[in-house]
Amino acid sequence: MPINIPQYLPATERLKEEKIFVMEEERSKSQNIRPLNILIFNLMPEKEKTELQLLRLLGNTPLQVNVTFLNTATHESKNVSKSHLETFYSTFHEIKKDRYDGMIITGAPIELFEFDEVDFWEEHKEILDWAQEHVTSTMHICWGAQAALYHYYGIGKYPLETKCSGIFDHEVYDSTVKLIRGFDDIYPAPHSRNTSISTEAVKNHPDIELLSESDEAGAFLMISKDERHVLVTGHLEYDADTLALEYERDVARGLNPELPKHYFPEDDPTKKPRNTWRSHTHLLFSNWLNYYVYQETPYDWVDKGENHSLTSSCL
């Protein structure tokens, strides 16, 4: 089934080249289908790259998906044109009365700031609180996961001596959990962050289940016990060359970065890295959309005071 995206979004042509079934919103209005409505709160600086990465994954399932992009009103994005944001993005004020079947909150390059030092933190907290009543399931990625762990569960982050960057192996703890159904016992995934969280704090929290971790990179996949929140501390959505581009950027800035671990062939940055995590990325997004969004969301969102009416579990 197709992914429905705003007309003229730059990612459209690239998705079509990759044979992702794309339907622009004008055509989708003629379809007598109840699609899933997914909100993407995109906090990454290079928004168009992140749009493509996430749309590629949402468009590779049997479910029809409508996508809305959300941007902060209290922070000015510097790496994307104002016209792009005005054309393809909404602010929280514009969508706060709506309901969404799922939401994705991306990472952001602000980990070294304390949460209350982030200029849009109050807005972010408002969105997290709003999601409790207006979104069936939310996937939080990297800084987004750290922010959710802090806001919902009181688990903070701490700075690392050196950046956690590279491709790391992760162990699956319980393969019967729907989110990781079909995963190999050990699988690779990218990380790119300057802070981390306490694995022990996650394990000891009564409202969170740790599903997968790495000996080198720590806790990776978590889910809340009520299954409303999926937390991913790394970047499964990354392309094969994303870590290389980040490394080259930091070299150009004179930051003297370490090579991403287990990434470049023979640790040679002149050699082209390969994507070894793609299949598990697609599986994670497919499982999330199927088991935690599609099978849990109501067919019709109906406001009844503070609650919504679960009129149907099937679409």
From TrEMBL:
Biological process terms in GO annotation: L-methionine biosynthetic process from homoserine via O-succinyl-L-homoserine and cystathionine
Alphabetically ordered keywords of this record: Acyltransferase, Amino-acid biosynthesis, Cytoplasm, Methionine biosynthesis, Transferase
List of catalytic residues: C142 (acyl-thioester intermediate), H235 (proton acceptor), E237
GO molecular function terms attached to this record: homoserine O-acetyltransferase activity; homoserine O-succinyltransferase activity
GO cellular-component term (any): cytoplasm
Documented EC number(s): 2.3.1.31
Domain of life: Bacteria
UniProt cross-references to InterPro entries, sorted A to Z: Class_I_gatase-like, HST_MetA, MetA_family
A Pfam entry, by short name: HTS
Pathway in which this enzyme or protein is active: Amino-acid biosynthesis; L-methionine biosynthesis via de novo pathway; O-acetyl-L-homoserine from L-homoserine: step 1/1
Catalytic reactions on record: L-homoserine + acetyl-CoA = O-acetyl-L-homoserine + CoA
Subcellular location: Cytoplasm
Database matches in Gene3D superfamilies: 3.40.50.880
Record-listed substrate binding positions: K163, S192, R249
Site note Important for substrate specificity, residues: S192
Enzyme class name: transferase
Stated family: Belongs to the MetA family.
Function: Transfers an acetyl group from acetyl-CoA to L-homoserine, forming acetyl-L-homoserine.
NCBIfam families linked to this entry: metA
The name this protein goes by in its record: Homoserine O-acetyltransferase
Organism: Candidatus Kurthia intestinigallinarum
Highest classification ranks of the organism: Bacteria, Bacillati, Bacillota, Bacilli, Bacillales
